[in-house]
Amino acid sequence: MEQDTIADDLAEEVRSACLGMRVSRLHRVVARVYEQELQTAGLSLPQMEILTVLVTAAGPVRQAALAAQLRAERSTVSRNLALMQKRGWVAVAETSPTGRAMSVTITGTGVAAFTRASTAWRRAQATAVGILGADAISVLDQWLDLRPEGADGSDADNCPTT
Hints:
Blueprint: H1 2-17, H2 19-38, H3 45-56, E1 61-62, H4 63-70, H5 74-86, E2 90-95, E3 102-106, H6 108-116, H7 118-132, H8 136-144
Antiparallel strand pairs: 1-3, 2-3
Helix pairs in contact: 2-7, 4-5
């Protein structure tokens, strides 16, 4: 009986105050907006993220550095890169002697896929801003400490891309 009371109290506390659950729900709501729009261009949100990094990179990007920069699991990045390589969007630029590490670069086909998604991404962005508010980008960047390099005199990301 006492365990039931503890469980009930904990459930109420979690329901009323859990930040993790709220962030997860927010992620699902916002990701759904982008996924629905980007699927019309044949992209997923993680693929759009990867292509964004590769478009702006000065050269090949190590898979591990890509995962670190996106704050994503290496296995998730690896799966997306394999699919993107199959579609001709990315190419392996370098492979380590052991074959366990590789660097990738975006192809012309990848740049074309990325640019074709511009209208879909802009629609999703407008919807997300409507849901979250105009100051959402700056608030989220502050929370995640993703300010652009130099905005506060430091390199907040510190993730090498090559």
